[in-house]
Design brief:
The chain has 288 residues and is an alpha/beta fold. It folds into two domains: 222 residues, Rossmann fold (3-Layer(aba) Sandwich), CATH 3.40.50.150; 49 residues, no CATH class. Helix content is 16%, strand content 18%.
Length: 288
């Protein structure tokens, strides 16, 4: 069950209380697109951000029990840029290294006077693309786009402070068949320190070696131990994962005794993530 821990996470910005909940139940996963919700939060609303978004590599699952992947057309750079301000301590964004800036985020050419596709002028500056996605009414808090040229590059993903390398053990020939490339036996994660960044102990290494989990729950699944390692670098309460997938970040947070909030738009992955969390909770319950 997606019952939460009893704690509440209250948005700092409540522009549409008639449409949205007054709070989010902590330690839950929302079966919805994160863009419908996270625009309501101001900067530093969470301690950590762990994101494993679409890589934009047109991934094809090789395991028969996974349906066709229809969500990996592009890397959502502008969305991730908007989300970076939500993390007080740090953000970690998994990605493929060689296509990060292939597709610049560009502002559509709207008529002057409309509020869409504009960077917010307050709070965490979440992109107005979220508002366009939700088809919300114009709001006085959002200025017009009259000063921005149509098709202008906006919210391009900034240069990270560091890049982590997940060295994948047990991947065979790597992801995909590329006869003129080296075997892709690693993945990368971009590191962005937050405004209050501080490691719990010392500076941490950037090459992390963990066994690949087999991708049984999700075609691009990350190992729980890898996420636990990253979470263990910080003194924190709550981690946000806007692309929860099969729930690995949630499982890692629970095993660390921490809180989480996640979003997953795919109903199948959402159900699988809830089942994994329920299994962790059941194991933690004392025997009668």
């Amino acid at each position: 069950m997606n019952e939460g821990c009893g704690r509440k996470i209250v948005p700092h910005l409540t522009l549409a209380p008639h449409r949205d909940p007054e709070y989010y139940a902590c330690c839950t996963i929302i079966n919805d697109d994160h863009r419908n919700h996270l625009w309501r939060f101001n900067e530093k609303s969470f301690d950590l951000l762990i994101a494993d978004p679409p890589y934009g590599m047109h991934f094809k699952a090789t395991q028969k029990h996974h349906k066709s992947v229809d969500w990996d057309d592009s890397f959502p750079g502008f969305e991730l840029t908007a989300l970076l301000g939500l993390a007080r301590l740090a953000s970690y964004i998994f990605c493929r290294w060689d296509n990060l800036w292939d597709s610049d985020a560009r502002a559509p050419a709207f008529e002057p006077g409309t509020p869409e596709s504009l960077a917010r002028q307050r709070g965490n500056k979440l992109h107005n693309g979220f508002r366009q996605h939700m088809k919300l009414e114009p709001d006085s808090l959002y200025p017009t786009v009259s000063a921005i040229p149509g098709n202008a590059v906006i919210n391009n993903l900034p240069k990270p402070k560091s890049t982590l390398v997940w060295r994948k053990v047990g991947v065979g020939g790597g992801v995909g068949y590329h006869p003129n490339e080296h075997i892709r036996d690693f993945e990368t994660a971009l590191f962005y320190p937050g405004p209050e960044h501080k490691f719990k102990d010392k500076r941490q290494r950037s090459v992390l070696t963990f066994k690949a989990p087999g991708n049984n729950a999700h075609p691009t699944q990350k190992p729980v131990e890898l996420i636990k390692e990253i979470l263990g670098w910080y003194d924190f309460k709550t981690v946000l994962d806007p692309y929860m997938g099969s729930g690995t970040t949630a499982v890692a947070a629970k095993l660390c005794g921490k809180h989480f909030l996640g979003f997953e738009a795919n109903e199948t992955y959402f159900k699988d993530s809830i089942a994994r969390i329920a299994e962790i909770r059941n194991k933690a319950k004392p025997n009668n």
